[in-house]
Every structure is written in structure tokens, then in C-alpha cells.
Design goal:
The chain has 8 helices and no strands. By secondary structure, the chain is mainly alpha-helical. The protein has one domain. The two termini are 30 Å apart.
Length: 190
Amino acid sequence: MDFNIDIKEIATVTMVLFAVIDVVGSIPVIIGLKQKVGEIQAGKASLVSLAIMVVFLFAGKSILELIGLTTNDFAIAGSLVIFFIALEMILGIRLYKDEVSSTASVVPLAFPLIAGTGTLTTLLSMRAQYHAISLLIGIVINVVIVFIVLKKLDLLEKILGAGGVAILRKVFGIILLAIAVKIFRTNTGI
């Protein structure tokens, strides 16, 4: 593992993951989960998300090779998933439907809401472009942000209001759309 720390790279990775995870844009969904199942365990959801992302960061490529796929194949497919997630954010539509279970802290909160297909695809795609240490630091920073958001959910809802959440969701949707295009272009040679 390369321990070369590049602040700009860490900032880029952190912002990309922040946009993909979209915990701020997910506040309305998380509030809905909380109302359905009661208390959400912020620590449990954060740790499970962290574990999923770290395992996939290091074992994802091996898993792909085991089934005969390349990182480029996965990155292109992932760019399409990220593209549709961005469209959801920008247009305010829901393309992916998730079922709610009684253990909402793990499913659907930790997976697939926080560490879902978009996040895992993004991690694998960025693995080819960025140092592992930058990715790990970006993951940890985002998990800390997720933990804080989950702990302070009621306060954030009051501060942002419905309009503030909607604006943030659209801004990060546009950023995510551009990232999807970049990943697609990089891995197809277009």
C-alpha cells in the first residue's frame, strides 16, 4: 500500500464519496425510516457501512476477476448506476425501490442507502485513479459525517428545512452526473 498522502486527492475522494453517499439528501428518507422503525442506531449503521466499503475497496477487484470482469467493465457499469442516481437527485424521482426491514440501522440504512451500489462502484472506479490511503481517509471522513448526521438528524432537519435539503440534493446531483460522465469517458477511451 502506498502511504503517499496528497491533501488535494483526499479532498477530491472525500467530495466524490460525499456526493455519492448523499447522506444530506437522504435525510428525508432516514427520517421516514426512523418514523417507521423507531430509533436508528447511528454507531451500528456507521460501522457496518465502513466495513462494507473497506472490504469492497480491497476485495472488490478480486471478486470481479473471479467472475471474469475487469475493473473497466465494472467502472462503466457503475458510471451508468451513478448516472441514474444523479438523475434521481436532480429530477426528484425515485428509480430504485428499497424495502424497509425492522433492522433499519443495517438494512436499508447501512446497505444499500449509505454503502450501496453507487458507493461501491465509485470506490472501485476510483481505486484505479487514486491511492488507497486517500480512499481510506475519504471513507473514514464520510463515515464520520454519516455518524454525525444520524446522531443530529432532528437538529439538521430543523436547520436545513425542506428547501435547504432540496437545494443541496440538486447541487450534489449535478456534481455526481459530471463524475459519472468522467468515469464513463475515462474507461471507454471516448
